[in-house]
Fold this sequence. Notes:
The protein is α/β, with parallel strands linked by helices. It has a single domain, classed as TIM Barrel, CATH 3.20.20. The chain is 31% helix and 18% strand. It has helices at residues 23-30, 33-36, 78-90, 106-117, 144-154, 173-182, 221-234, 248-257, 267-270, 274-285; strands spanning 3-5, 8-10, 14-16, 43-44, 61-64, 67-70, 97-101, 122-128, 162-165, 187-190, 194-197, 212-216, 239-242, 261-264. An 8-stranded parallel beta sheet has the order 3-14-13-10-9-8-7-4. Strands 5-6-12-11 form a 4-stranded antiparallel beta sheet, with no helix packed on it. The chain has a two-stranded antiparallel sheet with strand order 1-2. Helix 5 links the parallel strand 8 (122-128) and strand 9 (162-165).
Amino acid sequence: MSITFCGLELVHPIINASGTFDAIAARRAFGDQLLERFPFSAFVSKTVTVSPRQGNPPPRLWELPAGLMNSIGLPNKGLDGYLAHDLPQLAQLPVPLIVNVMGFSRDEVAQLVSAFAERPEVAALELNVSCPNVETGTVMGADPSEVARLLDAVRPLTDKPLIVKLTPNASDVPAVARAAERSGASAVSLINTIRGMALDPQTGEPWLGGQTGGVSGPAARAIALAQVHSVAAAVSIPVIGMGGVQSGRDAADLSRAGATLVAVGTESFRDPSAGARIASEMRLRSGEQPYSGGRLTGSLNPPQSTETPCKTSQ
């Protein structure tokens, strides 16, 4: 099941969704075992912004009957902090590094792309366009013309693959994907989390510190499948599919819908070895030998069952 994606040679089609697997913290927990049994064929970093961000105030998580809602707010060290502290550690991973970046204007995104274009440790960039452009007030990823203008500005700045992470909250997601392709995107990824809200059962006020949050996990799976299917039919560039993937069957469904790679997100919170397990389950379903990456063991012990849906409770 080895695969070539935008010039990158990957041992299997399972990667992580940005912000859902902290490789630096996992290295502290599992030691060098993480490097020997890394569960993904490429690693996508959490979002990097130009300036440091503290993120949203707590509470930040709300458990759903079939998933999770988060209002983390993209906390990170900023570009300079990432280059100084995170990048040297992530460069030690045994797989290609994809850095996810987000800016609040085209100039900010251009600054980020230019900085990472010079770094040989970075194999590709993922552009998070689910944020408002402070110049126009429009969410970049919700408007095909905004996405086109963004790509027109940053595509000339690097030869590295540029992946556009689409928002599911656009009125016409395939139109946004087509605009990204026309303006030079190497691939698109979807879906990002779906906007939701939870109310405090005692006060009736929004529970999350950011008021609204992003819904992920099994609750998003059917929406992801539909959007990946429609986008894959609309573009010729590769598609990374994600949303509620818990098993090899879920990953295979997204592949059949048109995804070249499949990203695992919320499931990694329950099972840190989910990427390797799901890759193995995909191989078994296609009659191949299981992936040899193995399970991570130590201070975090993942469940041993396979192909079993996880339904969390509130």
